[in-house]
Structures are given as C-alpha cells and as structure tokens.
Design a protein that fits this description.
The protein has three domains: 95 residues, Acyl-CoA dehydrogenase/oxidase, N-terminal domain (Butyryl-Coa Dehydrogenase, subunit A, domain 1); 108 residues, Butyryl-CoA Dehydrogenase, subunit A, domain 2 (Beta Barrel); 165 residues, Up-down Bundle (Butyryl-CoA Dehydrogenase, subunit A, domain 3), CATH 1.20.140.10. Helix content is 49%, strand content 11%. The protein is built from twelve helices and nine strands.
Length: 421
C-alpha cells in the first residue's frame, strides 16, 4: 500500500461515513422505488466510491483489491443496496479492461457520474444471441437479466451465446445505454434499490463492431493489450470480483450489529427480569457468536483480497502463477465467499431474532439487512454446495465440473486465437 493510496483510501472512507446516515435514511424510499435516486448515485460518486477500481491512466484511484474491500464494507454497513451498487461499479471494470485499449478509452475516457460499466447475463442461461458478420457481430434476443448498475452506467456488457458449429461459447457485447431499453421488472425481496433490471435492445437486432464484442474466453484470458500498466489489471478477476462480494455481506452484518447494540441499550427482554438487554448473559452469548461469524468472514475476505493483489503483482512482474495455482485459488475464493455470505446472513438472523417484534418494521435497518444478506447467498455464482464440491474435487486431486459462464474454472487455459474479420 503506497502512502498516497493509503491517504486516498482514508479520505474515501471518511466521506462514506459522513454520507452513511443519509444512505440509511434514504433506504426505505429507494426500496419502494426499486432503485437508488440519481441524487444518491451522485452522492456516492462524490465520495470516490465509483472510482476505486478505475485506471490511474484515466484519473482513477486504482486502489488495490484489499483497499477496495474496505470501501465496499463501509458502504454496505449503511445500506446493502448501495454496497451492491458500489461492488458492481468496481468489480466489473476488468471486463472492459479485458476487451482492449479502444473499449477502455470509451468507458473511462470521458466524464461520468456513477458507475462506468454494467454487466448482464454472463451465465449460460442467457437469452442473448450473437452471430459473427463482416466487421463485427449481430446480437439479438434477450431480455438480459440481472443488469445491476445498468440504470446508471454509460455501457452495459451483454452476455450472448454464439454457436459456429464447434460448440457454443459466450460473447461479451459492450452496448451504449442509448441502444438499450430497461424494463421495470426489479420487484424482489431484498437488495431492492439496486435496480438490477432486465434489459432489451431498442431494435430487434443490433450490429456491434468487432472491438466491442469479443469471445469471452479472450476477456477472461486477458489476451488483448489494454494499455494499462498497474498490477490491478493483471490480478485474477475472480479474486477481484468475489473478494469484494464478500465485503457486502460483512458490511451488512457489521451494520446490523452496530444497530442491534444501539437499540438494545435499556431495552427489556420479555419473559425475563432483565430490564437492559445488554446486561443479559444470553445477549453476551449471542454477541460472541455473531462476532465469530463476522470475523471469520472478514479474515477470509481480507486474505483472498491480499492474495489477489499478490498474484496480480507476480503477473505484472512477468512471473505469473501457473494455471493449476490460479484454478485452485479461484475455486477457493468462490467457495469462501459463499461461506462468508452464509455466516454473515446467519449472524444477522441471530440479531433479528433477538431484536423484538418492532424489528420487523420496514423502516428498521436490521430487517432490511436480514433480507439483503439472504439475497447475497442466493446469487447465481454462490451456489454453496456446488462450489464446495468443486473445491473439494480439486483438493482430492480431481478436476472440477466443466461448466460455462463468467465463473468457469478452466478459464486459465489459453484462449482460442481471435478470428480476423
């Protein structure tokens, strides 16, 4: 951690803490509207939260993954949906970076308030289709689902399936927002204000030039020169994305714990003679359990973020880790993020269960954190049992399941040679 980046991190965290009560105050209305207000996005942007993972060459802070983790945790303490939006704003920047210098220039070169890029449907279930044509691709289909940050970003990367006779593969198509339509279909039980709507094209088909639509195996293999010099751009992308994802769960749990301690002071426990919940032994026992779950998640997330930075530094120095090491780390960070989400959700449930009936009120942050934390555990990339089996297979000397999508574990094999149109 350099002194300048350490100072910048401290400034960002101070500004988020100052904004925190406003984020919490606005959370109920944002839930009702199924999206953050533009004022909230602008306020988050003003703290620097959307700049933490942007390239230094374009004025970005380009903090280390370990530093970015602290930012995600701090935002999520105050509002889970804001934490999610900030996480996506940082953790998807590797997608345009993997597409080459021209896309990097488009995404980061101009002025913008809010996240710079969003992603949608990068799993094999995508309804998007891509067909190679002269000079680019024709994409069609949709809708593309779970478009977190797409309401505020100038570009959204759409996952599209292409099959040219040798088996289907994923194409990432970077599409400007004026060629997209955003559906009002984000009606969910938690993370309500993320506005993670479904997306369609303004026309039935869209031509996307070659530089904006790339075989996603080329993106994950980082075969394109992006002109960026920092080691962040050599860091393992699953380590970057999912170390930070754990930060959402940790921040939610830390915020719920702080709220529990605040509202429990002087509160009696019904069915007992305790007049102050904080003086009851049963409270002390549950607080220790909550602490242990949160701390376990925090230590794993920090370790994974630090390892991500270390592996990025090795690659930037021309001595990258071997494919087997990278595969094992990526599998590990996925399963440990799933466990972090589980433990933090369980910690919040303990706090919720011991907060009395008033904690079910929609204005109460604890019930919101409870719902938001459970939503994290249901993310498509955090199937705990599947991730556990894959990591266990690697531990036992076997290969994991060969599956498609953005979290594929065979991503470190060489990408196919890019075809010249």
């Amino acid at each position: 951690m350099t002194t300048n980046k350490a100072e910048r991190l401290a400034t960002i965290l101070d500004q988020i803490r100052a904004l925190g009560p406003t984020l919490r105050e606005r959370a109920s209305e944002a839930e009702r509207n199924n999206r953050h207000s533009d004022e909230t996005i602008a306020a988050l942007d003003a703290t620097g939260a959307f700049n933490i993972g942007s390239p230094a060459e374009y004025g970005g802070d380009e903090l280390s993954v370990r530093q970015q983790l602290d930012v995600i945790i701090e935002v999520a303490k105050w509002d889970g949906s804001a934490g999610w939006t900030t996480w996506v704003g940082a953790a998807t920047n590797w997608i345009p970076a993997g597409m080459g210098a021209k896309v990097v220039e488009e995404v980061f070169g101009g002025k913008w308030v809010g996240p710079r890029v969003a992603g949608s449907s990068h799993f094999p279930a995508t309804r998007g289709k891509a067909k190679r044509v002269d000079g680019g691709w024709i994409i069609s289909g949709g809708p593309w689902t779970f478009g977190s940050d797409s309401l505020w970003a100038p570009y959204t990367n759409l996952g599209c399936i292409c099959d040219e006779g040798n088996g289907r593969f994923l194409v990432g198509a970077q599409v400007p927002r004026d060629q997209l339509k955003f559906l009002d279909d984000w009606k969910v039980a938690g993370m309500c204000a993320t506005g993670s709507v479904s997306i369609t094209l303004t026309d039935e088909e869209l031509f996307v030039p070659n530089y904006r639509a790339i075989d996603f195996r080329e993106v994950t293999s980082a075969v394109h020169d992006n002109g960026l010099k920092g080691s962040l751009w050599k860091a393992p992308t699953l380590g970057w994305s999912f170390s930070l994802m754990a930060g959402m769960s940790i921040g939610l749990a830390q915020g719920a714990l702080a709220r529990f301690l605040d509202r429990s002071a002087g509160r009696p426990i019904r069915g007992t003679t305790y007049k102050n919940q904080l003086e009851a032994p049963l409270t002390h026992l549950l607080l220790s359990e909550v602490h242990t779950k949160i701390q376990s998640a925090l230590l794993m997330a920090r370790a994974n973020a630090e390892e991500t930075d270390r592996l990025g530094a090795l690659a930037a120095a021309g001595t990258p880790a071997d494919a087997e090491t990278m595969q094992l780390f990526s599998s590990r960070v996925l399963v440990e993020t799933a466990y972090a989400a589980k433990w933090c959700a369980e910690a919040i449930e303990i706090l919720q269960r011991n907060s009395g009936s008033t904690a079910i009120m929609l204005f109460e942050p604890i019930q919101r954190a409870w719902r938001d934390a459970r939503i994290v555990t249901l993310h498509g990339a955090l199937n705990l049992e599947a991730l556990s089996e894959n990591y266990g297979r690697l531990m036992a000397g076997l290969q994991p399941h060969n599956f498609e999508g953005i979290t594929t574990l065979d991503r470190f094999t060489p990408a196919p040679a890019a075809k010249v149109a």
